[in-house]
Amino acid sequence: MAPSTAGKSVPKDRFPTLFATLKTQTYHDPSTRGPGSHTIRTIAWNPTGHLIATGSSDRTLRIWNPEKPQVKNSTELRGHTGSIERVAWNPIKEAELASVSNDGTCRFWDVRSKTCIATVPLGGEGLTIGWASDGSLALVGRKDDFLVPIYLTPESPPTAGNVLRQPLQTNQTLFNPVGPPSTLLLTTGDGCVKVCSWPPAPPPATAAVNGLSPHQNTRAVSHSRSSTPAPRSISPSLPLLHTLQAHTSACVSLALSPTSRYLAIGGSDALISLYDTYDWICRRTLSSLSGSVKSVSFSWDGSYVIGGTDEGTGFDIAHVETGETVARIETTAPAPCLSWHPNGKYWIAYSGDPGGLKIVGAAGGGM
To answer: Which residues contact 104 (CB under 8 A, 6 or more apart)?
Structure first.
């Protein structure tokens, strides 16, 4: 058997041969609450890659150990009453997960104790969530075009700040990759990605009340099953730094390479554009997809990129520096949600196949 390449970057010329040795593991969830209801809508690895979360349209939220595919070794987190639209792990806490649902809440979970540690009312149906890299902030996007910042500190429970009204629906947000939040990227429905400064500029009439900043003038969220009022509908503005005219139709997904060199933008025009973050110029466009690009993901070393769509079957792996396709994964159904392993492995998790979550590489191989 070939020696393992875990933790070592594989060059483009060797990648097809080595990747072909990887075997796929299926993770079947028996908790389906009706025929065809268990559609996985979101997947996310924790920061170390030792756990992966899936959220489904039948409100099932499950934590899997990729090394143990049997459902008895997984954890189901119960509490949401609607479809789970997005899950995201705290970047600095490997066991803290946030989940956003169309039931109008964002829930924070301690997966070690299997408990919901806080529930934040959103004031509308949740759609997306992005964490700041230092774990101090989670930004939730609602389906009615509002953004809800949720502030986290060691001294207090997660607290919803003043909502930010957006002119168009925001499908995904992305903060700067290192340090406290200072830059925010947002997708828009008109084909642009906005690069904004953080924190928001307060409205003139609400810049401060009694000497407090806008996010301090908020109400704490509920714990466990109790409830509190939704965030206040005050609309600070996001100072615009730059606009990327990325696609001819809506921008849907974003991913920043681990090296921070490239930004991948998936559009509803079935294209992925790769922007150089040094000068914000589009270096290349990937056009092998067949539908709206619901997710994009870079390999742990930033060398390869993939995109998931809700049309067609199968997906390609592209070399970032050349745009060349180096491998293809065949599927029996569209795979809208996909994600590379974050830490030293060329494993790929994806949704869509009727059997459930699948992870390429988790069942073995020489890579």
So the answer is: 82, 121, 122, 123, 124, 125, 126, 230
